[in-house]
Amino acid sequence: MVSINTPFNADASALRLPQPYLLFLGDTTEAGFAKTAYGLRDWAPDKCAGEYALPQATVSTGLPVLTPAQAHAQGARSMLIGVANGGGVIPASWIPALVEALEAGLDLVSGMHVRLAEVPELAALAERLGRQLIDVRHPPLGLTVGTGRKRTGKRLLTVGTDCALGKKYTALAVSRAFADRGLDVNFRASGQTGIMIAGGGIPMDAVVSDFEAGAAELLSPDAAADHWDVIEGQGSLFHPAYAAVSLGLLHGSQPDVLIVCHQPGRTMMLGSASYGLPTLEETIDINLRLGARTNPAIRCAGISFNTSHLGEEEAIAVMAEESRRLGLPVADPIRGGDQFARLIDGCLA
Length: 349
What we know:
Elements: E1 2-5, E2 21-24, H1 35-43, E3 48-52, H2 68-73, E4 78-81, H3 95-103, E5 107-110, H4 120-129, E6 132-135, E7 154-160, H5 167-180, E8 184-188, H6 192-198, H7 212-219, E9 227-231, H8 243-253, E10 257-262, E11 268-269, E12 272-276, H9 280-291, E13 299-305, H10 312-326, E14 330-331, H11 337-348
Parallel strand pairs: 1-6, 2-3, 2-4, 4-5, 5-6, 7-9, 7-10, 8-9, 10-13, 13-14
Antiparallel strand pairs: 11-12
C-alpha cells in the first residue's frame, strides 16, 4: 500500500492522480456537501467516469451510475470521495463501499480531513492489494506565519456570504475569462476540489490557524506586475464555524480586487441553520475593512450570483435589480453573457 499526501505545487502542474475517477457520493442528502463531485463534473468532466452512491443518498451529479467493478472495467483508475461533510470524517457507513472499490482494482482519492490510511481496514486492505490511498487535504510542511509584506503582481479573491455557493466556480470562470482576454493569470486553489481540478494548491482549512496568512502568502507569491492570481475563497467571515479560515486567507492573499459570491434566496448558513446570512452590503463592508489591513487599496469589483435554482428570465431580472440597487456589476459566471462581461470589466478597471 502506498499512502500519499500530495505536495504543494504553486504552478498547478505536478499533481498526478489516477484517472479517470469514479465519484463517490456516500450517503449525502445535502447538495451543498457534494460540491467536490459537482466541481469535478463541471470543470474536469474528462476525468470523471461516473458516480457511485449508497442507497441513502439523494444527490446525483447526473453522471452514469456505475459500481466500482463496472467503472474499473470501463477504464476508471480510482474512486474519489466527492463529498465534504462537516468535520471531514469518513463514517463507518462508507467503509464497505471503499473496501469494494479497493477490491475492484481502484485506488482511493480523498479530500477529507481524516486520512484514508488512518482507517485500519482500508490501510490493511490497500497494503495487501497494492492499492494507493491518496489524500489531498493536507498542507505542506514548514509553513511560516504571515509577514504582511506587500508582494508584486495583482490578486483577486472570491469571498462569500456563506459556504458552498460559488467561490470556486467564480474564481475558475474569472481565470478563464482573464485568459481569454490575453492576460497572464493563474487560478490558485485553496480547497480540496480546486486542488483536484487545478493540480496544485493549499487546502487552507487544514492549516493551523497561526499559519493561515503565511500559507496564503505562499499560495500567491511575488509575480510580474501585470500577472493576475485569481484565488479561490473559503467559507465566510460571517460563518460561526469557518470564519477563521476566511480571515487568514483574506489577510494573506492581500487582494487588490474582491468578488462577493452569494446565492439569492438562501437565508440560513449551511451547516449552521440557526444563523442567518448577512446582507451583501455587510459582506462587502467587513471584507473591505478587514482586507485593508494588508492591502489598503483593496476594492470590490462586483457580485457573483449562483442562480442555478432560478429560471433564465428570473435570474436575469434578479441580477439586474441587485446591480441597480448596489451600483455594482452582478453576474452569474456560469450563465455568462453581458452581465459577466461587465463584471470582468469591473475587475480590470
